[in-house]
Amino acid sequence: MLFHPMDFLIFAAFGLAMWAQVRVSKNFNKWSNVPARTGLSGAEAARMLLDRNGLHHVPVEPVRGKLSDHYDPISKTVRLSEAVYYGRSIASVSVASHEIGHAIQDKQAYRALVLRHKLFPVANFASGTAPFLLIGGFLLQQMSLIGIGIIIFAAAVAFQLITLPVEFNASSRAKDMMIAEGILYSDEEHGVKKVLNAAALTYVAGALIALFELLKFVMIFFQGNQED
User: Fold this and answer.
1) Over the stretch 33-42, which tens digit does the pLDDT of each residue have?
2) Which of 44, 61, 82, 99 is catalytic?
């Protein structure tokens, strides 16, 4: 079968992913041009939140690339893209605060984050191995090989799914902290939601793509076994 019914959902998820990326870029650019009234930069906001949460040992470093912001749980370091690190906009402090949310999750051993860290090496292996097993299984018409590929691919999908609560929780923490700590005023919260909600949508789209692809392979596997 050249076209599987699940392909409709996969294409829809790809469309959502593309739309989400456009929204992320659009909202970040828009709110990057709106200065935070406190005048804080992303780096200053990050340092303030880290210190107030007892994370004095966690450094904040600039890193090249657009929206390359992340928290490194191995080195315990917050890395912010230059636009966020030096920027003094609502978008800059919003993204910076989101990454501090991850640092606090790490400190508190937030269960979803701990599980995500444990799954990372497995998901990394699965992402590189599963496609070859699935392609090989289809070419050789070996259902057992496809089945192994599906099991391994499921680990990568699980990683995508567990990422969702991690990201949503970090954004929720960021929104609460920014207002509570006086980094932004309450009437600036609208911009925060626009920036962080758009970013969260990209993770939702990615998870849906992976999940629908997994379901498609599972359906093909069971159909193949029935034909045999």
Assistant:
1) 999 999 999 9
2) 99
